[in-house]
DNA sequence: GGGAATCCCTATCATTTTACTTGGAATTAA
DNA sequence: TTAATTCCAAGTAAAATGATAGGGATTCCC
């Protein structure tokens, strides 16, 4: 019941981009260094975030990555879903296309997984990068 | 962000025991058959539930397993924690002994993982096997 | 134009975890 | 005594994880 490094590194990277929002393209290398993460690995993650339109890239020297939207318009859920796939503690309650067992109609454990799924969704969909920035400023 | 089969099979088995609560020992084989699960594998799971005192066993012929407490006194959280280990989407918010990164004081993503952790805990600690039985009766 | 910085893409790989399977010893009711 | 059952310890195939390797494409800057 843990997130993989994909979701965790990905959120760190996106928060890093949010901190530098408006300062022009941020090179991957510098994100990886600040967040203490393998840069080649992070590259794969950020590629997916780019393909789904959460970040923009600028190629060539002085290039890098930028948020594609305002921090207030990107939720933690957006990021995690891209990197971890559809959410849900069991296949029968996956967000998009649940894979039902042949007993789904009468399965009581499914009710439990649904409640967990909903509560996780509520949390991650309610936190934006802006919320994290605000929290960050309070701490400093 | 999925539970493993350990937690899922374990809850199924415990619910099965709850359904047969008060009827004497239930053989593992019959649980495994009803829940369509490898019996040897389930044996390993139920062994852990026994060691932590959630189920009792009766050895020998006509033996089997029984809940060690009333269904109203066993929560989903009790079961899942035994089988999946301490809960938490990231090591830095594991329930018992979080493994903090060297940046834990200033890490903002940690705040997010904490909120997820709390919301999952709230759900699984609030559902008892009795609740599941009640739901089950409604459905039939 | 050349070189450096950077993104982009594909493939490979070691390790760990998962989800079992195998085999048999110990216990007990009938 | 035998069949049913729990109990225990190892082994194992497949998948997932968390990278690494290597090189091509693009763009800024001198």
What would the keywords be for this entry?
DNA-binding, mainly alpha, two-stranded antiparallel ribbon, Arc Repressor Mutant, subunit A, 140 residues, elongated, 53% helix, homodimer
Radius of gyration of chain A equals 17 Å
Strand content of chain A: 5-15%
The helix/strand class of chain A is mainly alpha
In DSSP terms (H or I, runs of 4 or more residues), the helix count of chain A works out at 6
Q: What separation lies between the terminal Cα atoms of chain A?
A: 32 Å
Largest sheet of chain A, in brief, is: 2 strands, antiparallel
β-strand number of chain A: 2
Oligomer: homodimer
Mean pLDDT of chain A: 95
Order of helices and strands of chain A: HHHEEHHH
By CATH, the architecture of chain A is named: Orthogonal Bundle
Largest interface: A-B, 36 and 36 residues
How many separate structural domains of chain A?
1
Query: What is the share of helical residues of chain A?
Result: 40-55%
CATH topology term of chain A: Arc Repressor Mutant, subunit A
Strand order of the largest sheet of chain A: 1-2
């Amino acid at each position: 019941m843990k997130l993989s490094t994909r979701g965790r590194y990905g959120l760190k990277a996106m928060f890093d981009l949010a901190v530098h929002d408006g300062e022009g393209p941020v090179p991957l290398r510098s994100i990886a260094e600040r967040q203490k993460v393998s840069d080649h690995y992070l590259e794969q993650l950020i590629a997916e975030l780019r393909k789904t339109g959460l970040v923009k890239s600028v190629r060539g020297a002085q290039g890098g990555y930028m948020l594609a939207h305002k921090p207030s318009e990107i939720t933690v859920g957006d990021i995690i879903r891209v990197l971890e796939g559809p959410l849900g503690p069991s296949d029968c309650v996956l967000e998009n296309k649940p894979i039902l067992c042949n007993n789904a109609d009468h399965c009581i454990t499914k009710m439990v997984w649904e409640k967990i799924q909903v509560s996780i969704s509520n949390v991650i969909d309610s936190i934006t990068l802006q919320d994290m920035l605000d929290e960050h400023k309070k701490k400093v």
